[in-house]
């Protein structure tokens, strides 16, 4: 995770009472933003070597691909890369702000998983282990699916606010992988080092993990009012 960010803002999870229920938090700089996904070793190795996500023939652009800007949620979904051998390599994928916002501008809130922890079933080690087994009629349209799932701590504990998951439809995923991902970095070793550090000392706080380079400094990513409305980002935390 070599992308640099200003260090004058606190990490996103330091004051849960001030964090909106739905907010996009990410590692970003002046031009690019990082999202994450876990892939098979064959897809990941080819992608890093060629700096093209679709470099491996195992990458299937017809599938819906779910990406997320939250490092902690990626750790939760992939079990720090140990959960499934088909998801054994975690990639940091950088996009320009403009292309990231273009995805959100096509976003449609998904209620397929009932607004819960999301993720869906696997499909046997294709380009996205979280997607549905096959593209359906809805995927033929270039609608981007948006889910708001419970955010996680680096130790995978559930937090009271939500993290965005972005489902890129099969009709768009080829173009996204080919043209919209500007760099590919394998961050699997960082994920595993994070797990080792927490196993050795579960009391490590977030700032210590950031200082060690095991957790990126994620900041609120600003979006225009049109996207705030489209993605229902002003919704308050539901009362219990």
Automatic annotation (TrEMBL):
Bias kind Gly residues: ranges: 116-127
Xref: InterPro entries: DUF4291
Region Disordered: start-end pairs: 114-139
Coiled coil segments of this chain: none
Pfam families named among the record's database cross-references: DUF4291
An MF annotation (GO) of this entry: helicase activity
UniProt keyword list: ATP-binding, Helicase, Hydrolase, Nucleotide-binding
Domain of life: Eukaryota
PANTHER family linked: DUF4291 DOMAIN-CONTAINING PROTEIN
Protein name per its UniProtKB record: ATP-dependent RNA helicase DHX8
Organism of derivation: Cordyceps javanica
